[in-house]
């Protein structure tokens, strides 16, 4: 064994307080036979975005932000440092073939699930296009699926105008029979951010929609709790799909489609906490963060904070 | 007619979803005899700012942000794509003669109003100095005028120290007899942002002042509604003058005079919605946005969102 | 005396409105025998930060932001232009010897206090490491001291891993007998921002802790008032120690340790106003602002606004 | 006709000096039957880049930079304001189907050439992937083609690893029989920027290579002139393909693959001037500029300056 | 006298090496009767720029950059720390009246010269518009004046289109009889940066023009020396007017009108050195630096380096 | 072994061209008994900088830039992919104790050398303060040492004013008897960048100095070659110490002490190539790069290019 006094060739030389556990220290690369509470998988696909997006850099930037957080919650007076998190790495996407990339994501999520290594999973996009293959794979593995989608947009564009983009995942899922409209809840939909035709399409499909006004009126936690209760009667598992542009541009400046009038970061975190503790919630994706457009990684940092709310629920 | 398969020489090649109408698609350049619901005029004057400001770039950046919004409101379940908006372009200001530029603005607003082409108008500044000639022109055309001013500042500086600047419009209007103090309402005035002398001046002139504390206490919508009711008894038309620095620096980082403790973007949008639906409200200006200081056009984007609340009221 | 028509060789040529007093105009460099209401001292030490920080630039950037504010409060209908503020300048820190720098701060604060020139004092950091020598010096001068600390973090790290850093001031103070844990109140402590060991340490020492949840639940002003009342029974003076990272990253983007889910700038300002008016409150420090990471000096501007709430209390 | 005093609704209100002609004023959108000296076509494709690139924004940013230049050359004592330039607009690329986009480019270039509207053409990329369909189309229209390529890289990657990317255009052209290696000249190839295998591939294909050392030694203008003379014996037309990363990162900071040790902007401009005046040179593309990574549009500005050297040759 | 151990209330606490003299330490504010070798005057006028410019901030940023330089030249083996430099401060310009501001500059320069306090002077713009009143004042004081102008542009625009702007100073001077065209030398004029009409105007007026090609061909130092010799036969004093946009955009990225193909910073510095040592050279202005557009104050730093070449000539 | 189709949990999913070897792929973490041609060690110390510097981030950013380069040189027609490079990681510095950090560096370099694992070494700073312990350690290990220092500054400040900083390494080395002045060559020293006292000190110590003028006059390669020949008669090994601020600010914008008038990046690279091929040259350090101040990692990229010139010499 190499023994130097002040360096370890294979490890970064960051300052270490012996009493502090950073969340990133709890992630270990998955290897055969490993078991953990939560699995993390990166889905760095963003060429499917209608506008050019570097959201493919988000898995890296979100993971890096985990080092800004400790494993201890004063609120619950619990140190979660023994919650093991397995990192499955990132899916290798194809430089020019989008459909191939989408299929690689579906296959990879399935392969991950087949290992039965974890109880719950976090998928790091990428753009919202990744939710189509990801949710499909979860459905294939677990059975009937319900989805709660945080988003300013319906994401049910037609497929003729541009193929499968970040504007189409929920249409692809519903048209393909992978998700029933009745089992999709959309939270945070905004005025002047969607087309009438797509609004009507979601309504016809039976999707449940909550706007910003609804959130202001009722509170986001009560909405989440009510819908989880309802959904859980009809589905085997529930998947949270979090498009960060549901958050106001002041709190999430790094989303490709930023805008005013969204939810606050506090509303985001408390609603994810509320959802994550439900027993049927097995997965969460975090999408539409473009680190190259962000300010001081604020949006990746918010996403990392959201991961903690999902991971540390007991 | 030229027919290429994949290009149109006179049009941008942006992605187009056939079911989506973006707000910018509803703007048409004014031509003789045209009629529309709302007229838009750019007033790119900012050399009148005490501090150097590029708010003269704001008409362009705000218009560009309209392409981030669709014409559909889920809240009102209405698609406003048939509301025609006429763009009168930008007034050509003089490079070095400020008084000439101010006069050109007054003349141009009057010429626009004389066409009787629209029911309501949006004026895009520029700095707050543009409100003096603009409100004057509206008064000359329509008669007795009332003004609701969103602003952290009174804007009634003396004229001797620097001529007509962005700090003087309401003094110029009151001194010139174009606006009675009784018919001016100021919303969002902040502590430590004004001088005692000017505070007293506005009081003496009969101006009604609402501070941030008043807004927190009473709510901004009730204040707006109450004042519209009151004002409408005394005036022929009401003009909204929106200095974006009324908004907190976290939500409007692109104002020259940013500061903490302002209103939120949600308060801005809801109060403009409340005001715009009143029958006597005929015009709104949006001023003091410097795109060169902004982050990701957040402030121009907020201004564009404010335009929608003004344009789409039915 | 030199008399030029349009210039004064020793003064900046900024625009001046004769009726406006900017706060910076009320600061005068301390000279022997001078007296004022508030003393200001810069403590530009940031090499004690665990991560590299340019918070040593903050005394300059905060002072510069004072020129963005006037001395007039509409709320209290008072012009504070006659409140004299004495600027004691900045302590010269050592380029490479941290312990020497800390000692220089302690000595300098004491020397300042010994002059008895002011009733109350503002200390501009620098990182939070400056609070150790500063609070020590206040205790040495005034007697028994109580501290209200706005912070996301406990700041009671062990000293073995890195010496006296910005993570250790309150441990140094309590271990050194300069501050009793019972007399320390921590406001705004966040989940996943501290280690279990340090949480327990503060509890054992008798420190009173208020989390973000407590603030949401009870309101920050009532908490402050209650604790001031309680503390004032046991101590001679009260010192406010304001780590700006207590504020949410959207409102204070220039802190080294930004994060989501903190208090708003309005909560910060109102809580400082509430505290500053208490008779035993004699000092406030403002720390952990790194101007090189800020956006448009928003965080320094917020700090300057906080200074006004402390200075202008009558 | 509408007549306002100071505004024209359909035109920007920029300052105009009556004696100055800006280059952008000489561009007119192509319409049926129009004729001009130079045709300009935008090819905004960059999803074919191996790394994410916003070079699809370059056609717009380069065109915008034309307004920074006048039509007058003091060196030649000539005002080129009567050289008519036809703008064919931008090809509409597909959001997710790369091969479709490449084919659209080939078709669009051919359709443009079929009009016989201009003598010479400028193609604005986009990434270097656009040169494959563009050069193919020129070959199909004009016959035997020679290419001078300014580039730090050979661009002959294998197609199996990632399909047709910005790393493959010249392999695609040679493999497809659209360009003989003997008729390809590469200028500015850099050490440690290419793989041995690809270096050998170009050698075997008969490609002529000039490195930075060759340029330092011989001078870039003499090299260009010599190769033009040689090439013109074997081909019908010559196409200039200018990858801006041939320029040193200090002079072209907006290229995706910036690096030290490239040519200066002066070398770029003089070599393009030298090439453009040759009779067989019919086209030039300008690729690999990502405006989102640039500083003050310096790289687009350099590209616009390069356009002038190509357009104004007499 | 106040005596603190580690602070001086009226002085910054920067690190000081006892053996180093920084150039800024040699500047003293002018007071009645003071004498020095060089006088410095700030002319912060930039609203006369055709495009919005913050070059009014340049006097401050250039002065600040003087602290990056010492007074010692190894080349001449001389320490210039005893060369006294008097700082006359900045002229107070008017916020809205341009002609008034121009007149204030003329008067202030004259008032400065009348004191006979220095042998030579540096004028810090501001935009190039300041050279009109400045050169006029020098002519009024000293008699017949010759000017060497470093510039990419002729700056002889007509006055009808926009009044006296940064595009007109040399026309104003020649038309007003303050400068003979024969006594004006322009260095660094660029292709595609000027209009034919203005090129012809300068020729007719007898102005001597050197282009970039001339500089490459002959070398900039020989040109300067030749022209100084020639000029000195006809004029009483020589004034250097340095528009920083003569420098290539890679070396001077902070000019409003940046462009490729200019001179290098080394050419700038050596040519100013060459000029400054001539006995009839009495003044230099440095204009067209906008610190808000610069990168790390590189352009101000270059300007400060140019100041040293002018100040330290012996 | 885990087998997924499209992901490897422990490896990044970047695009890989099977025929390309990137330089970073040739680095392997040192483990006991490993042997390589070149050893790399990170020395992330920058709190010793007089001004605050994040040059401690440079080891990471320079290593990251290695992925921008391949192992193939066309000039030498050689693929260096089999040159093994051992990465010894980064020395863990102390957060607050500078002397301890300096000693840790000395010990770590010695420990590295004791392994006899490599023939030559690259040390990645950090600020120039690291050269004191690093050169000392090399001397202790190898015997008599000669140094060629690329630098705008002499770096021989007195130690009383600030302790051992980045301004003192060569004084510490000479005073401590670790380096004879006769065996130190300084290349690129600039006017107005040093104090007279320190200039004289180096002269007295027998240091050989080459200024920018010398380089312009003689050429940098001939100087290097001449001095290597001379030095090699007197010393056992030669150490290259490269302070990147020797390079002009246009080419190395990320140095803390940027300035105009330095050498070009081409001069840097060719001079390092010339030096590295000498048999007695055993080590090179690269210091004074602050990635937080850089533009697009241009300066780290230049440093990585310099590493290649050192590593690949055969
Ligand atoms: Ca979405
Ligand atoms: Ca969305
Ligand atoms: Ca205002
Ligand atoms: Ca205002
Ligand atoms: Ca703290
Ligand atoms: Ca803290
Ligand atoms: Ca290429
Ligand atoms: Ca290339
Ligand atoms: Ca000029
Ligand atoms: Ca110019
Ligand atoms: Ca050095
Ligand atoms: Ca140096």
TrEMBL record, chains A, B, C, D, E, F:
CDD domains: Agmatinase-like. GO terms for molecular function: agmatinase activity; formimidoylglutamase activity; metal ion binding. Binds 2 manganese ions per subunit. Its EC number is 3.5.3.8. Its cofactor is Mn(2+). Gene3D superfamilies: Ureohydrolase domain. Mn(2+) binds at residues 128, 151, 153, 155, 243, 245. It is an enzyme of class 3 (hydrolase). Pfam families: Arginase. GO terms for biological process: L-histidine catabolic process to glutamate and formamide; putrescine biosynthetic process from arginine, via agmatine. Keywords: Histidine metabolism, Hydrolase, Manganese, Metal-binding. Belongs to the arginase family. This is Formimidoylglutamase. It comes from Mesobacillus subterraneus.
